[in-house]
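Notes, Module 5: Reading structure tokens.

Key idea: the token line is not a picture. It is a compressed description, and you learn to read it the same way you learned to read a sequence, by spotting repeated patterns. We will look at two proteins. The first is printed below with its tokens.
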Amino acid sequence: MKRGRPPTQDILTPREWEVLELLRAGLTNDQIAERLGISYDGAKFHVSEIITKLGVRTRYEAAAWRPSPGRRWQWMGLAVGLKKTALEAGMKTLGALPLAAAAGALGLLVIGLLFMQARQQSSASTAVGKIAYVQDGDIWVKHLPNGPVKQITHDGLNSAPKWSPSGDWLSYRSYHKDGDAGGLRSWVIRQDGSDERFVDHTFVAWSPNEDLLAFMAWDSVASRDEIGELVVERPDGSGRYRVLPPVDHSAIFTTGLSYTRTPWLSWSPDGRWLAFTETVTVVPRDTDGYCDCSSYVTLNRVPADGRSSAEVFYRGDLDVELATWDGWSADGRFYLLATRPSTSGGANYPWGPLIAAPVDGSTPRPSEAMLHWNDVSAIARSLDGRSLAIVEGESRASWQDKRITLYAPGTGRLSPLTEPDVTAISPAWSPSGSQITYTAAPNAPGIDTHAGAAGVLAERRVWVMDSDGTNHRQLTDDPRYRDENPRWSADGKQILFARIDLEAETPDLSLWLLQVESGELEQVVGGLEVIDGGEGFLWLEDRQFDYWRKP
């Protein structure tokens, strides 16, 4: 006896139609799961299937989709399924059909093959992805490898483009835009340059799996003197809801504690939580005006749907700073942090050993790892949520004593993947989780300045290794360039990376695609800006470009 769901010729299954109706009602994946009594992953899978089957790009386009009257989806499905062998077999049988029937059958076969070819070309392009980058202060977009280039901002005041999960929207930062002298402003814009919108005078953070923005809104746009409520909204400004109310400053009169939020936010890997920090200042009751008061920092999480209050899961000691980076563990059970005395004397003072703070509030677990925190990625999560790679090394100098290391937050176990005679940074997991790409150069201990390290940094190249630390392979070797920041394409066959031209009169940045198996290289963008800090300090960070590839 056959089991399972009965076959259907409809474009969606009955369950997917249910999910689509809930999408139209504006429900999140969490809410869909609760409404239908299924798991969160199940809801996420159904939404992904709906987007694919309807041929749309986002959940919002899916919600707006309506079937055309009389549309025969079953015939389209038949056409899509045809292969070359089917065409050959069909041609053999056409002679046995009446002329009119043969012509009709041939037409269907041709339509099917043309449709299939278009889908294959689209899939190939999507596998490579697209980039948003900054050139002369404006945001540009290019579909890789050889798609058209489009300038989407035009005032020369912009930086830090970030793709939304769907690839339809970009956020970016602007200073003094439209004559505003108040500093940072965050904006969003569609990839085609339409629907540009000011968001707020603060940083914004994209959800990892939905086109949703989270940010700490300002209480007063005029003075911008206080961080207010935590809100989430769609990039077009719709669907806005409050996750946290503004800070209650009246608490100082009853508890002697003054709370201040920072604009920094971090989504959990599954998109269900938001992490943020608060500085708690201990104010003596006899204080009249300003005081040199002690304070401590708390790390907190709150459900991103706003249905529950925030939870403190780590409290720092008095007068100790807390590093804030995107520190979620791959499975979302821990948050990685580091501390240093607030009187340490500035940004160059090293952070202490890595601490894994369980997000359930249980006892933090210190490790012996010193996390490199600089202008490169220091934490890399595998896409399957199982593994975590860090750049381990005590000093802030990226040219000395840095090793890529597997870190297990639950046990504190450290497993170095690279050798001590090379300095390796910028790890990135392949989509399958079987490989890690990174950049490496000879280790240069004892060099204290960027000028002194310039020769060693010039030897930085792109490498790849198996995820267990074996089979190291150097992929680039051009002495004219210094290579940085490699990232995998969605199909795991190509790597996008940045190159600094060492022979140019002024530092010049370009982006290249590398075929992993063949080693073939192709420049896709040139003439980008490198931040020149003087004395040989060339700085590459995420303000220059962002790479989108379909998950």
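Here is the second protein, with the sequence above and the tokens below, as before.
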Amino acid sequence: MPSKRDTASTTTSSGTARVAAHLKGTTTSMRSSIKGMALLAVSAVSAFCLAACGGSSDEPVTVASSYDCAKPDSSNPADITIVGMPILSNGALYLGEDKGFFAKHGLNAKISMVPSPPAAASAVVGGSADFAFGTTMGLLQAVEQGQDLRGVAPFAGIEPGFFDKMQAGEAGYETGVNALLVQEDSGITRPKQLEGKTVAVADPALSSLLTRARIKMDGGDPDKVKFVVMTGPDAYNAVIAGKVDAAQSFQPIIQGFEGKGLRNLSWLEVDVLHDGPTSIIISTSEFVRKHQDVVARFNCAIKEAAAYSNEHPEDIRAVTAREQKVDPATLKSALVPYFYTEIDVEGVQRIEDLMVDLGFLRKRLADDDVLVSVESDAEVS
């Protein structure tokens, strides 16, 4: 998700993570098929939970630790495992290791990558990882399903104030990550005009949520739109070829879309969410209760990594290129996301409200059921 670009930047995917969701479709058959895809995507996590954790506790999960971020202590190091995804935002995890933030706070971090948020959540619930990258949307759904997952530390999202700066035309805030594209000569100039049309979305979760919300915001009825799920590249190519009327796709896939005869109706995540945390670090309540000091130390380290990453986007690009084994030049203009140094509770609630409104959640959840309160001196030193 976006943050201000430095002078070298244009835009690219910030790793907007994709997770399963209950989705309202346009017809009974469409609702059934897409909801089925969503449930399949989280079924592995649910299975692990039933076998390994037996559901979440009704009691709030808190961390009460005397550990002080301003007085780092590495004298008694602990081994931790972190699972992420091979996307740009997760470069901050590697910087936490490279720059010594984990070691500084007495953590020997082993970082590995998996291809999807459900796989990352499964690793945590199944006990093969202590912490994992998760999406805010995926965490909310997992908790509603009774899975033993909690948000334990802040991560990436849309920079506070990004929407207002985009509206003001401020340099560095001209574009977002997720676009809603139509052919220039289609006659479609507003999202509400997609009623009765076929729209490709990159997944049945966040991509669909943002697209549906934007159509509704413009006065349209998303239930009158036929949604089809394609990969980001396939959706982009489909709208170019005229196989669909519109497509949600994202950077860097869509770079140069104007030269392909396309028009962007909306930078979806900015127009819909304005700002806020689209991702979060997750763990289980069981792990948190048993390893309070480790969770406190982890918060200190991840917050320092976040602050550093915001100041050094070029390092995020470089470490991502290294870990993905790609030419660094391919990420030279990548839009690096904004990294939160505190969990933005109000931002989480905005996403939650949107999910309830569009049928992705049945009802609002108690904050204590979703987020861990870390009661320690967790300020970045």
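Summary for the second protein:
- The chain has two domains: 39-159+275-377, 169-273.
- Residues 39-159+275-377 form a domain with the D-Maltodextrin-Binding Protein; domain 2 fold (CATH 3.40.190.10).
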